[in-house]
Amino acid sequence: MAEQSTSSNVNITDPVFNQSPVIKDAENVTINYTQPTSASSSDEDKWNSMIKLRKLCISYLEKEGKLRLQGVSAKEEIPVVHPIIHQITYYDRDTVTVDERYEPEGQNELFKKKIKKEVCFQDLLDQKSKFISIVASAGSGKTVLSLRLAKAFSLLQRLCIHLKFMDANYEEPLTLRQFLLENMFPGHSEEFYITCFYWMQKNTDKIVLILDGLDQAQYSLEKISPKINYNACVPVKDLVFNLCRKHFFPNSLLIITSRPHAVLYLPELARPQVTYALGDLSVFNSHELFLAFADEDLWSKIKKSSSQMLSMCRNPLMLQMIISSNIHPSEDIGDASTPTRLFATVMENLKGSRNIRFPKTMDDLVLKLQVLAFTATNNHKVIITDKQLKDADIDPTTVHDIIVQLHAPKRSVNCNLFEGSTTKFYFCHQTFQEHLTASYVVYGMPVEEFQAFVETSLFQEHWTVVRRFVCGLLFDLESKAVSGDLLQKKEILKKYLTQQLEIISEKYLKSRQKYSDVDEALKGRLFDLYACVGEGKDSSIATKAAEHLPRKLYLPRPMNSNLVPGFLYVMKHVTKQLDVLSLAVCRLDANSFHEVASVIKEMKPEQIGKMNINYNKLQPSNIDDVIGLLRVVRDELWMLNCFIDDDGRIRIWRVAKQDERKKLQAALNKIQTGLEVVLDFDITLRSQK
After folding, report:
1. Per the confidence metrics, is the pTM higher than 0.85?
2. What are the helix (H) ranges across 132-258?
3. Which of 137, 173, 334, 484 has a C-alpha 20 to 30 A away from that of 302?
C-alpha cells in the first residue's frame, strides 16, 4: 500500500502528525500503545472547540435523521417509532453461515430461538456495556434507530459521533483523528481537530461512537489486527478493529449496526458484549407511521380489501412500498392486494425511476435479474458477486434503484432495492430475491423444465416463499389472456398443488389419530399450501382445498399473520361441518383476529362444533368479532386469557372486562342456542332464555 501524501489540511509541524508512521503491513507490525498527546490550547479554546464539535454532530444528525419515503411526501411530522427490540444470544456460531445462507424464513424466524428478553429504546440508552451490536435484515430500520440513539445520547450531554461504513471505505491509511473528525467534519482548522481529539482521549466515558452498517464495509475484520496507538496511520480496518477491542477510548460506548453475518464472524477478541436484534414495528407504530405519509381512508381500504398488506407494513421498507404502490398504482396490475401484486407493481413503477440508466430496456434488465435471483436461491445463497453481475452484462453504477454500489467513498447513493459492495451484492430485502426467482420460474423456464422443477423441487421447504409467488403469478391472471406456455404451466401447477393439498391433509389427519399433539411440521406445510391458494385466488383450487380441510383443524402456534389470508380464502369455500376449529395460542393480534372472525361469522349456523380462541392478543374492540361467532359455534367457545391491555398484559375475566362480559351475555340471550362460552375454568356463560 502506497504511503499517504501530505494533504493541504495537515500541518507537518504538528507534533502529533510527526509521531504517526504509515503502516504498510499492519498485520505484522505492532505499535506500542501510548498515552494521549498534550494540547497547547487554552481552557477557553478547548471549551469553544467542544461546543462547536457538539453542534456539528447534532447538525449532522438532524440532517441525516429525517425519515423519507421515495416518491411519497410526509403530510405531517414523522412520529418517533421503533421496531421491537430483543436482546439475543448470538455467538453460538449457528445463526447464519459465513455466506449468509438463504432460508425461506424472515428475521423473526432467524432469532426466535435466541431471544433472551424484549427491551425498549430507553434500555439502550441506559446501556452499561461498552460495546454492543444491533443486527437486523435490510429495511428493518437499523440506520433510523442508530440516528435516534445518537440524538438521544447527545441530549444526555454525551459526545456522539455517528458514522456510516458506506461513507468510510477509504483506501488510503488514516489516523484515528482523520477517520473520526477530519473526514467527518472537513474544512476546520488544525487546532480545532487537535483540541477536540485531545478532549476525546481525556474524556472517553463521555463519548458514544455509532458505526452504522458493518456489512457495507469493503474490508474484512475477520483477522486480528495489531494493537496500535492513537496516532498511528493505518488502514481503516485496523482502526475499526482497535475500536472494537476498546484499545481506543476504553470507557466509551461503541455501537455497531449490521446485517447478522458481518457481526457474527468478528474474531472473539473484537466481539460485542451484547447483541440486540430488531424485529417489526408494533401494530400501533406501523399505523402511526403509515398515517404520516398516507391517510386513514387508504389504511381502511387496504384493511378491507387486503388486510395482509397491513401486517407487511410492520416492516418499514415494506410500508414504503405498499404506500407508494397504492398512491402510484400500475395500470397493468391493478390493486396491490397481494404480495405478488405488490412486488409486481414496484417493479413496474421502477421503469420510470430517474436513477435507472441501464443502456437497454427495463424489461431486459429484469430478465437478467430474474436469472441472477434464481441462481442464487437455487444455490442457497443471498449473495450476488460482482463476477456474476459482469457475466450478466450488468454494471451496478448504471442501475441505481435496482442495484446500488454502496462503497464509493464520499459519494451519496440512493439505496432503495439493493445493498452491496464492489465485491458482493444483496437484494435489499430477501423477498425481492424470492419474487424475481418466481418470475424466472414462470416466465423464463421452458415448459418441460418447469414441469420437472414443480414435480421435484417446488414443494420442498426451501422454495416456500418462491412457491407462493409462483402461484400468484400463474393463478392471479384474472381477465388477462392466457395462452401458450403460460397456460400449460398453469395447468401443471394446478395439478400438483391439488395433489399436495390432498396428500398433506391426509397425513395431517393420520397424525392427529396417532399422536396426542398435532405434528407441527405437517401443520406448517398444510398452511403454507393454503397461503399459495390465497396468493393465486383461484376459486377452483380453493374449493378442492376446502373439500380436504380436516374436520378437526388446529392452527399453527403461533400463527404467522402472512398465513391468515390464504387460510381464510380456503375457509370461504368450506361447506362441510367442522368438529373443532382451534385458534388457541396462535397469538393473533386485533387486526388478524378481526379478519378471521369476519370470514367465520359468514359461515352457516352451528357449522363449527367447538372453537377455541384461548391465548391470543385481542383488544376490547374485538368483542364484537367474538359476538359474531356465537351463531356459528354449536357446543363450546373457549376464550381463556385472550384479551390484553394497552401494555400487552393479559386481562383476567374475573377481575376485569366486565363490560365485555355483559355484552357477551346479552348477545347469548338474544339467540336460541345451547352454546357454552368458557371464559375461565370456573366461569361459563350460557343463554339465560
Report:
1. no
2. 142-155, 176-177, 190-202, 236-244
3. 137
